[in-house]
């Protein structure tokens, strides 16, 4: 709501389409939906609402967590709204605390750079203008201006890993160092620079083709070789590195270095085929 209230103070409100994805997991969802519709009528902006039956979807994808499925469905919703309204930008309200939670959450899952800093201010069609704003600043503004907002009551349920980090683990960092958020934000900025440098090298190597030469690949540093494999997997796996382990990468590197020709290697949706000096993907 903080982001929405700020946009309503600008001329952009006349081109605004507010999106609400109803997860149907809380009784409060209907109140939030109704409030947004009423606010849209009052302020003159459009509202798009979508809901999903996660109980049914979970049965179709039992290996995926609720958080993962919910994120996939939300971004499918955003993509559909972009096509309906002929736009190519989506603004989300992720703030600094969200970014830090994602960093620790993905770090514990074994993510590398792409997963650790996957929340940037601008990433393709997604814009996140609040990544330098702390959650406490948002609450302070809403309370000071007596603006209505909603708090997801499930956020207090620490049985979810992300909520446990938010409620139990991360507050302890404040006791260690009160400026930990600022310092971690600076560290993530440094990681982003490293990631950008690596991505540029990967792009230069792969160009815009569907293959690379093994002889050239073997001249690269081990780090860059691994990043190239992660990139190929990322592009073939719906822009996610979930499911790609270090042992998987080691398997792929062995496959590439083998002298056997006309062989294939598959990991989920990533498929590699060896044809002489060419590695096709």
What would you say this structure looks like, in words?
With 281 residues, the chain is an alpha/beta fold. Helices cover 53% and strands 12% of the residues. It is built from twelve helices and nine strands. A four-stranded antiparallel beta sheet has the order 6-9-8-7. Helix 5 packs across helix 8, helix 9 crosses helix 11 and helix 11 (222-236) packs across helix 12 (246-257).
Strand content: 5-15%
CATH-level-2 architecture of the largest domain: 3-Layer(aba) Sandwich
The major pleated sheet works out as: 4 strands, antiparallel
What's the pLDDT, averaged over the residues? 90
- For the termini, the CA-CA separation is 43 Å
CATH fold assignment of the largest domain: Rossmann fold
Question: Measured on Cα atoms, how large is the radius of gyration?
Answer: 22 Å
Portion in helices: 40-55%
**Helices and strands: which structural class?**
alpha/beta
What shape does the CA trace take?
globular
CATH homologous superfamily name of the largest domain? HUPs
What is the string of SSEs from the N terminus onward? HEHEHHEHHEEHHHEHHHEEE
Could you give the order of strands across the largest sheet?
A: 6-9-8-7
Model regions low in confidence, pLDDT < 50 over at least 5 residues: none
């Amino acid at each position: 709501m903080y982001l929405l209230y700020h946009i309503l103070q600008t001329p952009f409100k006349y081109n605004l389409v507010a999106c609400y994805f109803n997860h149907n997991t809380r009784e409060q969802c209907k109140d939030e939906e109704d409030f947004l519709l009423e606010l849209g009528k009052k302020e003159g902006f459009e509202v798009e609402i979508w809901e999903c039956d996660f109980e049914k979807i979970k049965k179709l994808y039992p290996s995926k967590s609720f958080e993962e499925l919910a994120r996939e469905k939300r971004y499918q919703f955003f993509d559909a709204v972009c096509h309906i309204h002929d736009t190519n930008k989506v603004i989300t309200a992720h703030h600094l605390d969200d970014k830090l939670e994602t960093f620790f959450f993905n770090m514990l899952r074994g993510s590398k750079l792409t997963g650790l800093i996957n929340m940037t201010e601008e990433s393709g069609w997604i814009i996140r203008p609040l990544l330098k704003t702390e959650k406490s600043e948002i609450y302070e503004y809403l309370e000071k201006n007596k603006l209505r907002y909603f708090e997801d009551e499930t956020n207090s349920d620490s049985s979810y890993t992300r909520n446990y980090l938010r409620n139990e683990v991360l507050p302890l960092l404040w006791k260690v160092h009160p400026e930990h958020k600022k310092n971690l934000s600076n560290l993530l900025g440094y990681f982003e620079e490293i990631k950008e440098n690596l991505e540029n090298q990967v792009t230069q190597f792969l160009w815009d083709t569907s293959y690379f030469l093994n002889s050239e690949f073997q001249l690269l540093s081990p780090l860059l070789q691994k990043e190239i494999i992660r990139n190929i997997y990322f592009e073939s796996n719906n822009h996610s590195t979930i499911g790609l382990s270090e042992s998987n990468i080691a398997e792929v590197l062995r496959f590439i270095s083998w002298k056997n020709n006309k062989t294939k290697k598959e990991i989920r949706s990533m498929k590699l085929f060896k044809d002489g000096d060419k590695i096709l993907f």
